[in-house]
Specification:
Elements (H helix, E strand, L loop, with lengths): L1 H97 L6 H4 L1 E8 L10 E5 L12 E5 L6 H4 L6 H13 L9 E4 H7 L3 H10 L2 E5 L3 H8 L1 H5 L5 E3 L5 H10 E5 L6 E8 L4 H18 L7 E8 L6 E5 L21 E4 L8 E6 L4 E5 L5 E2 L20 H18 L13 H25 L1 H4 L3 H7 L3 H6 L7
Parallel strand pairs: 3-4, 3-5, 5-6
Antiparallel strand pairs: 1-8, 1-9, 2-7, 9-10, 11-12, 12-13, 13-14
Pfam family, one: Ribosomal_L1
InterPro entries: Ribosomal_uL1-like (IPR023674), Ribosomal_uL1/biogenesis (IPR028364), Ribosomal_uL1_3-a/b-sand (IPR016095)
Protein name: SEL-1 like protein
Length: about 475
């Protein structure tokens, strides 16, 4: 009995210990869970702060890279300008030792900057860039200037007038009256019609390009004049510069004498810009060189990264001294692609006296004609073989709508046969995955039903021994290739 009491007491003590242990475990689990939550929150906060720090570091790195790239570009440009001064000094020394003094240094010893691109421009918003030289190598007093003006008389009689210089004299009087300039300030005045009549051959235009130093053209006829003069003027870099007659002509002439042109045409891999002659002072040439370099870097397609090389080049291209070379890949340069343009087919729609009421005639820019309905604007066939006509009309209508419809249907069918997946399919056509499943089901049904059919009609397939002997055929042939019994 005492033993039983001791056992009960021991069990109660063990139960109390288990309950207390469970409570302790619960408390520990709660503490560990709270600790884990705190650690997770702390880790999340640490990750967020790390991400913020990484973002800050990345933005700072990007800023540093941009600043470093800008600094590297500025150092490259400064090094380029220093090399240009060295090249100009070497060229001056070379020409002084070889040729001595020149009577016409602006022609014999002209020097310029040649720019070679990695990629040619595919699109451009302007054809040229004007650069004002701080120390020009010529002045209005020692330069021959030709003014090209529009025609004052636009009538047919003025076009047939044999005195082609008449309007040029009128322009001289008008310029002297409006701007106070005489023939001492310019060398020649030409009108657009006089230019076209007197310089219509290539040799005459070539001689005109070499006769004068600067050509100025009124902005009203500038595009037409430049198109007419063509490549003979572009070869010698004397394309006419625009000016407005309403502005002071003296200022326009002074600015034109100081101006050189950087061509920005498409698909050009290199350009040349003249900035003086070797007869000038080294400091003047250096200032002109710096102005040209700054204009080239700001206006060239693709910027500084698209420049492959720069050369200081005199007349005759020898010696050509490189001042900058970049061996980078052309694929690293990203130029703007030209947008795809589709010409709009403009047309003029109006009434025609030979058409019946309700029909109009539409004429396109390419010369094509079509008859349209007045109310809807849809194209119709007129006249056709079903319309009335008379022999005095001249031509018999040959348009048959039925034949044209059949012709278009045949043409459409032929074009569809050459283009895949454009042929119209029948209603029972099924795509490939579904078609394969249906074919397999069909083969399974055939494999199951054929033996059943043969078993049900075995008498017509299995001949007797007498029939086999009479026919002279073997039992195998009769089973595999039986002969149907004819009634």
């Amino acid at each position: 009995m005492c033993f039983l009491v001791e056992m009960v007491v021991v069990k109660k003590v063990k139960a109390k210990k288990a309950v207390s242990q469970k409570n302790v475990d619960k408390v520990e689990n709660k503490q560990t869970s709270t600790r884990k939550r705190k650690l997770a929150a702390e880790s999340e906060d640490a990750e967020i702060t790390e991400n913020k720090n990484e973002k800050k570091i990345s933005t700072e790195d990007q800023k540093k890279e941009l600043n470093s790239s800008a600094e590297s570009d500025s150092t490259k440009v400064q090094h380029l300008k220093d090399q240009g001064r060295i090249a100009i000094k070497a060229l001056k020394k070379h020409f002084a030792e070889r040729n001595g003094k020149s009577l016409f240094p602006d022609i014999d010893q002209a020097v310029g900057l040649t720019v070679v691109y990695k990629k040619p421009a595919l699109t451009t918003d302007r054809a040229r860039c004007k650069i004002m030289l701080p120390c020009p190598h010529r002045t209005p007093s020692d330069s021959s200037i030709c003014l090209i003006m529009p025609d004052l008389d636009q009538t047919a009689a003025g076009r047939r007038d044999p005195d082609v210089d008449k309007q040029a004299r009128q322009w001289a009087e008008k310029i002297e009256k409006d701007h106070g300039l005489t023939n001492k300030h310019y060398s020649k005045i030409l009108t657009k019609r006089q230019l076209e009549r007197e310089y219509h051959t290539f040799s005459q235009r070539r001689a005109l390009a070499t006769t004068y130093d600067v050509f100025l053209v009124d902005v009203r006829v500038g595009k037409a004049v430049r198109t007419f003069l063509g490549k003979e003027f572009y070869k010698v870099h004397k394309e006419p510069l625009d000016f407005k007659y309403s502005k002071p002509l003296v200022t326009s002439i002074e600015n034109a004498v100081k101006t050189v042109v950087l061509k920005l045409q498409r698909y050009a891999t290199r350009v040349h810009v003249s900035f003086g002659h070797l007869g000038q002072q080294l400091s003047d040439l250096a200032l002109n060189f710096d102005a040209v370099v700054d204009a080239v870097l700001s206006a060239c397609p693709g910027g500084f990264s698209n420049i492959r090389s720069l050369y200081v080049q005199p007349v005759g291209s020898t010696p050509s001294l490189p001042v900058y070379v970049d061996n980078g890949m052309a694929s690293e340069v990203h130029l703007e692609k030209p947008p795809k343009r589709r010409r709009s087919m403009e047309e003029f729609v109006d009434d025609c006296s030979t058409l019946p009421d309700g029909l109009k005639l539409a004429v396109r820019r390419n010369g094509k004609l079509r008859v349209v309905k007045e109310d809807t604007g849809h194209t119709i066939l007129y006249p056709t073989v079903h319309d009335e006509w008379e022999e005095r009309d001249g031509l018999k209508p040959l348009i048959d709508p039925a034949k044209l419809k059949r012709k278009h249907a045949i043409k459409k069918k032929r074009t569809c046969s050459y283009i895949p997946l454009t042929m119209p399919m029948p209603w029972y056509y099924v795509e490939k995955p579904t078609r394969m499943v249906l074919l397999r089901c069909y083969y399974a049904v055939c494999a199951f039903t054929y033996p059943v059919f043969v078993g049900l009609n075995w008498k017509s397939y299995a001949p007797t021994r007498a029939e086999v002997l009479a026919g002279g055929r073997s039992l195998k042939d009769e089973i595999l290739r039986p002969k149907r019994k004819t009634e």
